[in-house]
Design brief:
The protein has 24 helices and no strands. Helix 3 (32-41) runs antiparallel to helix 13 (237-243) and helix 17 crosses helix 18. The protein has a single domain, classed as Amino acid/polyamine transporter I. The protein has helices at residues 13-21, 26-29, 32-41, 46-49, 52-59, 63-87, 94-102, 104-133, 143-157, 161-191, 217-223, 225-231, 237-243, 248-257, 259-277, 289-296, 300-335, 352-371, 375-407, 409-414, 422-440, 444-452, 454-467, 471-489.
Length: 490
């Protein structure tokens, strides 16, 4: 009779290999201050700075409800992931418990899709960086800053992991200070009845005085979910990073439980202030409303400062993304799910080959801004693809939780960090994800990306059909089947 306090992670190669990939990684070189600042900074993404302009133009003031709904649903995803990670300290990521609970195929699909998620997100960040640079040098061809961004990102990730953590610490601190400052300045403008030259008076009444909270109707409200969903991609890194800390039982719950506070402060309050200062009809889809707010108020220098902040935010997001992708490919190689060359480390214990692979794929962002006619069109396409792939990863987390509750109920009973709502809430959130996918079909640009995304999963299916016949994969599958049979007998 197996001991379920140590699940199949001990016998499944997919699971045992995963922790090894972190030996030179976050859990060994990042201090608690790094982890906490990275976690907080992760709540402030490119989707908020760059994409919220389009979201507001589509949904109007109802955008605040869009962010609140998505944030609430993803909070439950993070709670499910938190309980799973704490159920076995051998788990280092959701790819581990997916392979353990659902089978080796799930670890393969989840690992590679998560890599793809961050590659596409990185491409979106490169596009955003090019757009921010054009604020100062509008005549500069967009592909130049995009190419320079890719080179910078690769260069930032070649040193040690500690250098990466320190860079992200200061990037996150800049974003936090900027958002809080924007909220304070915006509130001061509202309470002082500031009026922009030729513009409307700053007032909370701007939230409802022009068509109410839902001025574009229900379908406009629905359309706001696409870019808003992208604003939350990578939120699962909060749990994964905390789980790699020295004290996951303390740091993981703290990081996850602070998600609602971050959503309310960085998304809801910030957007309420922006729409109060700048009437929603004056916010354009192709500009960051954070920059536009100060420009409209005639504060040109402040607008330049904010533009610099959102530029560093996009660079920060892309920096984390390219690091995550290189680590994921390294882990996949360690498991036999990727070519062995990507599993090699430099003398500084950096997976350089995996890093270069991710850098090459980021060049797609350079191509898109070079041949495209609109920054926001390119941004919308790649963010839709990224959002859909992240929805797949989040769904795998929920499905793993459902299986965990069925197979290991005693671990749930012993858990000190139980998911609120349990299995029924998992089905509620999965239904919400189905709604999101339907929402993506309602606009032509998002529909095009939706129709292209299945090609990725088709390619993965073909690759898995080939890889599953290799001896190492057959051994993993046999170990999984043996564990499941033993669990059934128990």
């Amino acid at each position: 009779m197996p001991d379920h306090t140590e699940p199949a992670v001990a016998t499944t190669p997919a699971a045992t290999a995963q922790p090894d990939q972190h030996e030179p990684g976050l859990s060994r070189q990042l201090s608690n201050r790094h982890i906490q600042l990275i976690a907080i900074g992760g709540a402030i993404g490119t989707g908020l700075f760059m994409g919220s302009g389009k979201t507001i133009s589509l949904a109007g003031p109802s955008v605040i409800f869009v962010y609140m709904i998505i944030g609430t649903m993803l909070f439950f995803v993070m709670r499910a992931m938190g309980e799973l990670l704490l159920s076995n300290t051998g788990y280092k990521s959701f790819a581990d418990f997916a392979a353990d609970l659902l089978g080796p195929w799930a670890g393969f699909f989840t690992g590679w899709t998560y890599w793809f998620c961050w590659i596409v997100t990185g491409i979106a960040d490169v596009i955003a960086i090019a757009g921010y640079v054009s604020y100062w040098w509008g005549s500069l061809p967009l592909w130049i800053p995009a190419l320079a961004a890719v080179a910078l990102l690769v260069g930032l990730n070649l040193p040690t992991v500690k250098a990466f953590g320190e860079t992200e610490f200061w990037f996150a601190l800049i974003k936090i200070v900027a958002i809080v400052s924007l909220i304070v300045v915006g509130l001061a403008m509202v309470f002082s009845h500031f009026t922009a030259p030729g513009g409307a008076e700053a007032s909370f009444s701007n939230m409802w005085s022009d068509g109410g909270f839902f001025p574009t109707g229900f379908m406009g409200f629905v359309a706001g979910f696409q870019i808003a969903t992208f604003a939350f991609v990578g939120i699962e890194l909060v749990g994964t990073t905390a789980a790699e800390a020295k004290d996951p039982e303390k740091n993981l719950p703290k990081a996850i439980n602070s998600i609602p506070v971050r959503v309310m402060l960085f998304y809801v309050v910030a957007l309420v202030v922006i729409i109060s200062v700048t009437p929603w009809r004056e916010i354009t889809a192709d500009r960051s409303p954070f920059v536009a707010m100060f420009t409209l108020a005639g504060l040109g220098i402040a607008a330049s400062v904010i533009n610099f902040v959102v530029l560093t935010s996009a660079t920060s997001s892309a920096n984390s993304g390219i690091y995550s992708t290189s680590r994921m490919v390294y882990g996949l190689a360690d498991q036999g799910d990727a070519p062995a060359a990507f599993g090699r480390l430099t003398k500084r214990r950096v997976p350089a080959n995996a890093l270069y692979l991710s850098g090459v794929f980021l060049l797609a962002g350079v191509v898109m801004v070079a041949v495209g006619s609109s920054i926001i069109e390119a941004f919308t396409i790649v963010t839709t693809i990224s959002s859909l792939c992240f929805i797949f990863v989040w769904s795998i987390i929920l499905i793993s939780y459902i299986v965990y509750r069925r197979k290991r109920p005693h671990l749930h009973e012993a858990s000190k960090f139980k998911m609120p709502g349990g299995v029924p809430m998992c089905y509620v959130v999965l239904a919400f994800f189905a709604f999101l996918i339907w929402a993506f079909t309602q606009k032509e640009d998002t529909l095009q990306a939706l129709l292209v995304t299945p090609l990725w999963f088709a390619g993965l299916g073909i690759a898995w059909a080939v890889l599953r016949r290799r001896p190492v994969q057959m051994a993993r599958a046999a170990a999984f089947r043996g564990e499941q049979a033993a669990a059934d007998r128990d």
